[in-house]
Amino acid sequence: MNALSKILLFATATATLACAAPGGPYDQPYSIIVTDKAAQADPLLRPVIVNRVDERSITDNIAVVPPGPHQVVLDLPAHAGFRTATQRTLALETKPCTRYYVMARLDTPITQEWTPEVKYSEPIGECRAKFGVGG
Predict the structure, then answer these.
(1) pLDDT at 22
(2) What is the 3-state secondary structure (H, E, C) of 9-68?
């Protein structure tokens, strides 16, 4: 086998592998789950840490997921008077090309009891344009 044949064989094999490789999270309609870190007027709303989604650990506090049902594990860091963080699971049905801002709603400002919630959601314009997803 000459050098040109080897190069062509290598190029064909590489192209075949590239076509067979699975796509990334942005290659199809997606949803994003993130905490809202903005200052809140409501003293019972607190930012959370997005820990896991569907048993997959999350880094950088942002989860890019396919649309559909998800189990989102959220951590609330300890606040004044407490030493340990607490954790809750939020069942969330995400829609395509939508960003969800999650928060903790304290039962009272002096306890660690809280409920996870979606504060609000918004369309992801670049996703909607890329995949033709309407409102």
Answers:
(1) 62
(2) HHHHHHHHHHHHCCCCCCCCCCEEEEECCCCCCCCCEECCEEEEECCEECCCCEEEECCE
Q: Does residue 16 lie within any of the structural domains?
A: no
86, part of any domain: yes
Q: For the segment 114-133, what is each residue's pLDDT rounded down to a tens digit?
A: 999 999 999 999 999 999 99
Within a domain: residue 124? Answer: yes
pTM equals 0.80
Highest mean pLDDT among 14-18, 40-44, 82-86, 90-94: 90-94
Residue 105 has pLDDT above 90, yes or no: yes
Instruction: Give the domain extent around 71.
Output: 29-131
Q: 51: Cβ–Cβ under 8 A, 6 or more apart, which residues?
A: 57, 58, 73, 74, 75, 87
Residue 33: inside a domain, yes or no?
yes
pLDDT of residue 7: 54
29 contacts 133 by C-beta, under 8 angstroms: yes
* Domain count for the chain: 1
CA distance 115 to 123: 24
